[in-house]
Design a protein that fits this description.
Length: 350
């Protein structure tokens, strides 16, 4: 059976054609370039972009798959969480296709889909049960996944998502948007000559929740104090003088190390607490090379098996939606034409 996956939860418009773990086509176009000057996603701009490009992306996905629309056996679509206007575009398209083709429809949770993007890799699939870590601009959460459709939320951020913290730190340092790639690139250039250390929040012994507002505030205070020092040293009236390139790199490195350490340590702790031997990571921050390195090292140290998606499947995409939608369909899940956009959709513990 071929599955048509549709993803429009935020600023990426994605359509994919999948068959099980095999991806025949995965097309994504993003409106991120339109949001750069605002330093974050503007919902109205994102929604209009989806409306403008959804049909074009659909046509391209079908063309790359070399299969006609009539061959589609299932339509899977993200129905939450996300921006309500953005979600509505994908859901409306999915409903129209489902009704017009007479094919079943399945709504998919965007957060869980990120975890299952690791199943799209070649080679052995992750083994259940596993601890799943979702890390993105909007979500940071740990799950115990026993099988498809059966998962339990173990912990989540109590304030900023880790990707959001990257964005805010990048903005503080004048590096631009989105923050993840630019902070990672700057951190790679660090030589650590300033010896900066930022705090890690643990929220109590054995807590699996996260907090990133503290480290973000620590970066803010550090940058502010250094700017004042630079200002006095330069004897200028200039407000917020720019920090040197080396100092910016060291700030990025120290921030990234502290933030990623918290993710790795909590993930390994969760695996130990629940006696599982497999950890799976998904979401935009899963593309971070330093996170992959640190978690791989942590997995070896704790005798765990770690799985990451291909980098093309870390960001929002429809292939992960198609795969999870098909798996849920096999489990008996069905949606109908009353499927609605759920901007605050939560992962149901099962």
């Amino acid at each position: 059976m071929l599955t048509l996956g549709i993803e429009t939860s935020c600023d990426e418009t994605g359509v994919a054609v999948t068959r099980g773990r095999h991806v025949l086509a995965n097309v994504v176009t993003s409106s991120v370039h339109l949001h750069k000057k605002y330093g974050g996603v503007v919902p109205e701009i994102a929604s209009r972009y989806h409306v403008e490009y959804i049909i074009e992306v659909l046509a391209e996905a079908l063309s790359r798959s070399k299969r006609p629309l009539e061959d589609i056996g299932l339509v899977a679509v993200t129905n939450g969480p996300g921006l309500v206007g953005a979600l509505l575009t994908g859901i409306s398209a999915a409903k129209a296709l489902s009704f017009g083709l007479g094919r079943p429809l399945v709504g998919v949770n965007h957060v869980l889909a990120h975890l299952y993007s690791a199943f799209l890799n070649e080679g052995p699939a992750p083994r259940f049960p596993f601890v799943g870590l979702v890390v993105s601009g909007g979500h940071t959460a740990l799950f115990l996944c026993e099988e498809v459709g059966r998962q339990r939320l173990l912990g989540q951020t109590q304030d900023d998502a880790v990707g959001e913290a990257f964005d805010k730190v990048a903005k503080l340092l004048g590096l631009g948007y989105p923050g993840g790639p630019v902070v990672e690139k700057a951190a790679m250039a660090s030589e650590g000559i300033h010896g900066i250390k930022f705090p890690k929040s643990y929220l109590g012994k054995d807590s699996l929740d996260f907090s990133f507002s503290g480290i973000k505030t620590a970066v803010l205070y550090y940058v502010r104090d250094r700017q004042r020092t630079e200002d006095r040293g330069q004897r200028t009236e200039k407000k917020n003088p720019k920090l040197g390139k080396d100092l910016v790199a060291d700030v990025c490195y120290a921030f990234q190390e502290a933030a990623l350490d918290a993710l790795v340590e909590k993930t390994c702790l969760a695996a130990a607490m629940y006696g599982v031997k497999t950890v799976v990571v998904g979401g935009g921050v899963a593309a971070n090379s330093r996170l992959r390195e640190k978690l791989s090292q942590g997995a070896v140290f704790n005798n765990l098996e770690a799985h990451f998606p291909k980098k093309e499947y870390c960001l929002d995409n429809a292939a992960m939606v198609g795969f999870l939608g098909e798996e849920l369909y096999k489990k008996g899940l069905r949606s109908d034409l009353y499927l609605s956009a759920e901007p605050n959709l939560e992962v149901c513990n099962a």
